Amino acid sequence: MRRLPRVALLLLCAAYLLPGLVGRGPWKSADITAFGYMSELARTTEGIARWFDPMLLGLRPETLALVPYWIGAWAIKIAPSWLNPDLAVRIAFAFLLWGTFTATWYAVYYLARTARAQPVAFAFGGEARPTDYARAIADGGLLALIACLGLAQLGHETTPALAQLFFASYLFYGVAALPYRRAGPVLALFVGTLGITLSGAPTVGLALAIGSTLYIAYERRRAARSATESDDDGPGYTLGALATMAGVTVLAAVLVFSLRLAQWKLTLSYGSLFSDVRGQAKLLLWFTWPVWPLAIWTLWRWRRQLNARHVALPFWFALVPLAATWTTDFSDRSLMLALPAFATLAAFALPTFRRSAAALVDWFNVLFFSGLALLGWIYWIAMQTGVPPKPAASVTRLVPGFVPEFSPIAVVLAAAATIAWCWLVRWRTGRHRAALWKTLVLPAGGTALCWMLLMTLWLPPIDYARSYVPQVHAVTERVGQPSCVAELALSRAHIAALRYHGQLNLQPLLLGTNCPWLLVSPETIERLHTIIPFDQWRFSGTLRRPSSPADDLLLYQKITPQ
Predict the structure, then answer these.
(1) If we measure between CA atoms, which residue out of 144, 158, 135 comes closest to residue 89?
(2) What whole-number distance in Å separates Cα of residue 112 and Cα of residue 133?
(3) Could you give the CA distance from residue 460 to residue 447 in angstroms, rounded to a whole number?
C-alpha cells in the first residue's frame, strides 16, 4: 500500500495555500468587512470591553464572531511596520487553512484505523498493514478536501467562515482521535468547540458537540452489549472520553446562552421551501464537487454499517452544516463547514472503486481541468495582445477600464504549474495499482492548477474587479483629504474600504456632523429629500465600481454660503 510522498503532498498544499497571499488587497464584500473590524480592534484605545463588542463606525457585525476578529487584530498589531496590515491578516488566516488540512488528515487517519473501516483480511495474508492503509485513506481525504471547488475562494479570504472551518475540523479530529490519544484530542475538543462557538456559528458548534456526545454514548452502549469482539471498532471510547465530550458540550452551551449567542436567524418558510430548492441544489452540486458523488457512493456501499464510526461521524458533521445552509442566509459559508466531512466520506469510497469507474473519473478530470487551463491561457494571451479578438472583447467587457500588465514572475509560476499538471497527467495514466489515493490526485492537482493560474496570470484583473480600490481612488480624487466625510446608509464593506484604502474620516450624517462632503447609498435616494435639505447640498456625481454598478456611491458637496 503506497503512501503519497510527504514532499509531494506538502508541495501540493503549498501550491494551494500560497497563491493569492500577495499582490492583492481585501476583496468584496465579506473579506473587506471582516478586515475592517479587525483593523478597528487593532487600533482601539477603549480597553478590553471593546474587544468583546467590536464596532465599525458604530455598527456591530451581523454575526458576533469574536475569535476571528481577535486573530486578525493581533496579526496586525504584531506585524512589522513594513508589512501591509491586510497581508499580515492573510498570512494568519493561511495558517488556519493549513491547520484545517492537518486536522482533516489526522481525523481521516484515525477513523480509518477502526476495525470496521479496514479491508477484509486475505486468507493467506499479504494485505496492507492497518497503519499503511489508514495513511493512504488519509492522503485521499486531504486530496478530496483540496479538490473541493467551494474551498478555493472562501478558503483564501480573511472572514469568520475560515476560522469556523478551522475550529470545526479540530472538533472533528478530536472526536475521531479520542479513542487513540488523550492530550491532543482533548485539547482539540476544547479549542474546536469553544472556538466555533465564539466564531459566529454557535448553534452549529453546539449541535456538532451534542451529536458527538450522543454518538460516543451510543458506541459505549453498543460495545457493552456486543457479545464478540469482531463487531467492535477497535479501541473504543472510555468513560473519561464520554465525560470529557459531555463537559465540553455543557461548557459550550453555557457560553452560548450566557453570552446570548443563540440568535440563529432562520430564513426558512413554507412559501420559500420549494422555491429556493433549485438554487440550493446548484450550490450543493458545484460547491462540493467532485467529492459529493464519492460521498454518496460511500453511504451506499456502507449502508449496512451506517452506525460505524468512520461513516456515522462524518455523516453527522456534514448533516449539521447542510441544515444551516438550507435555513440561514449564509449558505455558501455554512456549507464550507461540511467540506472536511464530505472529503472524509469521499476518501472511504476509494477502496470500493472499480478500475473502470476510476478510469472514467480520471479521464473526466483530465479533460475538464486541461480545458480550463487552456482557456485560461488563451484568454490571458488575448487580454495581453488583443488576439483572438473575441476573448479580448469579453475580458474588456467584464473588467471595463482595466489596463493589462505583464508580470514575468507570474508567467513563470503559471508555466511551472502547467508543466507540473502535464507531468501529473502522464504519471496518472501509468499503472499505479497500489496507490489507493490515485483517483483523487487529478481533481486535487487540477483545482490547485486552476487556482494558481487565477492567482498569477489573472490576479490583476480579478483584484481590479473584486476590490474597492478603484472606487475609493475615484472618491479621494474628488474630495481630496478633507477633515471629515459624512456618510448615509453605507454598507459595512464600503465603510471599511473608505477608511482603509482612502484613509477618510467617515462620520454618520445622522449624528449631526459638519463635513464638507457626503457619501450616500443609492438605496436611500427615494427618501433622501426627507433626510437632507437639498438647498444645502449639491449633487457632485455617481462613483461606481467598474465591474459592479450595484455598488454605486452618490457624492454630495455642501454648499458654502456666499
Answers:
(1) 158
(2) 8
(3) 20
> What Rg do the C-alpha atoms of the chain give, in angstroms?
26
Residue appearing with cell numbers 492567482? 455
Q: How confident is the model at residue 562 (pLDDT cuts 50, 70, 90)?
A: low
Strand partners, 545: 548
Q: Which of 30, 52, 48, 74 is nearest to 198 (CA)?
A: 52
Q: Could you tell me which of 208, 188, 186 has the C-alpha nearest to residue 197?
A: 208
pLDDT-derived band of residue 2, with 50, 70 and 90 as boundaries?
A: low
Place of cell 456526545: 213
- Per the CB < 8 A criterion, the answer to whether 86 and 21 are in contact is no
For 450-467, what is the mean pLDDT?
95
Retrieve residue 111's grid coordinates: 477513523
Q: Count of CB atoms within 10 A of residue 279's CB?
A: 10
Is 226 a residue whose pLDDT tops 80? no
Inform me whether the pLDDT recorded for 479 exceeds 50.
yes
Asked if residue 170 lies in contact with residue 208, where contact means CB atoms within 8 angstroms, the answer is no
pLDDT tens, 145-183? 999 999 999 999 999 999 999 999 999 999 999 999 989
Cα–Cα distance, 468 to 44 (Å, whole number): 24
What distance in Å separates the CA atoms of residue 348 and residue 119, rounded to the nearest whole number? 11
Rounded Cα distance between 278 and 457, Å, is: 34
Residue 350 · residue 140 · CB < 8 Å:
yes
Bridge partners (DSSP) listed for residue 65 = 199
- 350: nearest Cα among 134, 117, 137, 105: 137
For the chain, the farthest-separated pair of C-alpha atoms sits apart, in whole angstroms, at 101
Kindly write down the DSSP assignment for every residue of 379-400, as one continuous string: HHHHHHH--SHHHHHHHHHHST
Average pLDDT over residues 399-424: 94
How far is Cα 131 from Cα 140, in angstroms, rounded to an integer?
14
pLDDT digits (tens, 9 = 90+) for 357-377: 888 888 899 999 999 999 999
pLDDT tens per residue across span 138-150: 999 999 999 999 9
- Residue 165 one-letter amino acid: L
